[in-house]
């Protein structure tokens, strides 16, 4: 979820993402109210990712996450983690990244509705006459 959000909200410098805490991280729409069971599922899936990495002690993260050579056990662990995170947002699977980002922007809009509304300032007669 976060990587999808990052790809759509992050700036770029050449081909590299320019990650910002004020634009990307602080504005990421977290799930509304994950249950204890959902949080536990994420913790379990996260541990599986770490355990899969430990199976390759001589490999750097760059080696492990090379899309051409990523170990299948690590791919599977990440897929399980992604599914656990997705289930915190809604019970049905996202059929595409486009649907995922659409959902995230709708959630962001729901979270921020009313935050940026300007209050109308009433002008008093005194302040309007002072400009004459």
From TrEMBL:
Domain MmeI-like C-terminal: 36-115
Entry keyword Cell membrane: no
InterPro entries the UniProt entry points to: MmeI_C, MmeI_TRD
Ion transport in keyword set: no
Domain (MmeI-like target recognition) ranges: 1-32
Record's keyword terms, sorted: Methyltransferase, Transferase
GO molecular function per UniProt: methyltransferase activity
One matching Pfam family: MmeI_TRD
Biological process per Gene Ontology, one example term: methylation
Origin superkingdom: Bacteria
Designated name of the protein: DNA methylase
Lineage of origin: Bacteria, Pseudomonadati, Bacteroidota, Cytophagia, Cytophagales
């Amino acid at each position: 979820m976060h990587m999808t959000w990052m790809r759509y909200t992050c700036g770029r410098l050449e081909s590299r993402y320019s990650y910002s805490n004020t634009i990307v991280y602080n504005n990421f729409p977290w799930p509304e109210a994950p249950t204890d069971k959902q949080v536990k599922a994420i913790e379990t899936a996260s541990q599986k990712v770490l355990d899969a990495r430990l199976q390759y002690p001589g490999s750097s993260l760059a080696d492990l996450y090379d899309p051409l050579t990523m170990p299948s056990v690590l791919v599977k662990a990440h897929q399980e983690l992604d599914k656990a995170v997705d289930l915190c947002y809604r019970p049905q699977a996202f059929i595409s990244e486009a649907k995922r980002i659409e959902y995230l922007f709708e959630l962001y809009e729901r979270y921020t509705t009313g935050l940026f509304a300007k209050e109308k300032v009433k002008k008093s007669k005194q302040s309007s006459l002072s400009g004459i």
